Amino acid sequence: MIRILLADDEHLIRGAMAALLSLEDDLQVVAQAATGAEALATARVVHPDVAVIDLQMPDLDGVSVAQALATDLPTCRTMIVTSHGRPGHLKRALAAGVRGFLPKTVSADVLATVVRTVHTGGRYVDPALAAEAISAGDSPLTPREADVLELALEGAPIDEIARRASLSPGTVRNYLSSAVGKTGASNRHEAARFARAKGWI
Amino acid sequence: MIRILLADDEHLIRGAMAALLSLEDDLQVVAQAATGAEALATARVVHPDVAVIDLQMPDLDGVSVAQALATDLPTCRTMIVTSHGRPGHLKRALAAGVRGFLPKTVSADVLATVVRTVHTGGRYVDPALAAEAISAGDSPLTPREADVLELALEGAPIDEIARRASLSPGTVRNYLSSAVGKTGASNRHEAARFARAKGWI
DNA sequence: TCGCGTCCATGACATCTGTCATGGGGAACT
DNA sequence: AGTTCCCCATGACAGATGTCATGGACGCGA
Q1: Which of A132, B48, B157, B194 counts the highest number of beta carbons within 10 A?
Q2: Where does the Response regulatory domain lie (chains A, B) (predicted)?
Q3: Strand D positions with any atom < 7 Å from protein CB?
């Protein structure tokens, strides 16, 4: 019997997934959590075999939870399900030791299968997401460029970005200019959106 | 027995919700659809009593489907469930004749209850979403301002917005300036994000 | 040690944007 | 008929932004 921890902020989805997983004879949902912190706390108590975690949650995101679980509970395998899978997430997730990565568009059968695969030490990444991640390629941005571009994402003016990054406005403009060139965008906002779509920031 | 049509692009969620609803004795999921178009086509064939539709789907969004259903199948009550409820959606949905509006954070119990409420001609709107919609208030933007701001959302430069809106660049700047003033933002990108958060565009 | 790339910064310049004043046309309401 | 608001447009100006050249500091690998 595989003991599962389920974390998703959407009560309806979480309950429904629990119901589906429980239909399988060899699977048992032993705990549920609505936030990342709750998932972590619960996991420390119940020691699940597999943690199925939603990528976007109110507090910590799925990858952070996975990272914490990897060090806290090395025996617990982690997999992530998500609605909006961007290439960068997958990369970060795998780096965090996640063993399975699925969009919510898969069927319940697949979910159950992947839970079993992950439990026996295997890995599974949704082919479509994997293809996307590969086609997105590696980020051409330097770390600083990525930092600055991330701050530019919300539409803040350069002065504010400079303050938040503790840089001079001129330097910020240089990085942004460089990033705009690399992304082929026509201004920093477009560049920021592009980079986020590619999962670079 | 209430006959339900379920539309959601996420297979996992759809299947899980179907499983949950089917646990109720008086509810029966008679059809499922993964896209808006599919939902419409299916509804015309099976004539469900209640349509439970996800707000965001690849092609038509939930509100458009609801609108089409209202004219096509007047006897079919429509309700919408959503992950990310922005105030504007709720307003548009109610205008389209939707009888129920729920976030996916509710429990399965609530979902089933609302299905029954809607079926008997009642209405139900999630209290939290309703409060948000009220606090967001009506849009202070004129129709043109909203149009232009929407085009500005993707970070396009003014010239492109002008082309796409068939306006002169000067006019576009005036509308954007006005919108920036009304939203209290410091530039059009921030204004666009703000307006979208409020559901105004 | 040298070269290389990254990080940080400055200054100068052209262009883009935000703001304001102004005005004509049209629809709605008094 | 007059008032008011929205739509569309133009022009002018200040300030923000994008681009480019330049240079020093630092760490890393050859």
Answers
A1: B48
A2: 3-119
A3: 6-12, 16-22
Q: Where are the domains of chain A?
A: 2-135, 143-198
Q: Determine the CATH number of domain B143-198.
A: 1.10.10.10
- When CB atoms are compared, the residue of A12, A106, A190 closest to B17 is A12
Per-residue pLDDT of B34-48, as tens digits, reads: 999 999 999 999 999
Q: pLDDT tens digits for B48-69?
A: 999 999 998 988 888 899 999 9
- Is A81 at the interface with chain B, CB within 8 A? yes
The β-bridge partners of A78 are: A51
Number of neighbours of residue A120 by Cβ within 10 angstroms? 8
Interface residues for strand C (CB within 7 Å) are: A 142-145, 167-168, 170-171, 173-174, 187; B 157-159, 170, 173-174, 176-177, 180-181, 186-189
* Same fold yes or no, A2-135 and A143-198: no
Domain A2-135, CATH class in plain words: alpha beta
Q: What is the pLDDT of residue B198?
A: 85
Given the candidates 3.40.50.2300, 3.40.50.1980, 2.40.50.100, 3.40.50.2000, the CATH classification of the domain at B2-136 is 3.40.50.2300
Residue B77 has pLDDT above 90, yes or no: yes
User: Which stretches of A23-165 are DSSP H helices?
Assistant: 36-46, 62-72, 87-95, 108-119, 127-136, 143-152, 158-165
Across the interface, do A155 and B10 touch by the CB < 8 Å criterion? no
**SS3 assignment, position A101:** strand
Of A69, A71, A39, the C-alpha closest to A54 is A39
Nucleotides of C under 7 A from a protein CB: 6-12, 16-22
**Segment among A58-72, B70-84, B85-99, B180-194 with least mean pLDDT:** B85-99
Nearest beta carbon to residue A186 from set B11, B16, B157: B157
DSSP A36-63: HHHHHHHHHHH--SEEEEES--SSS-HH
**Chain B closest-CA separation from residue A11 CA (Å):** 4
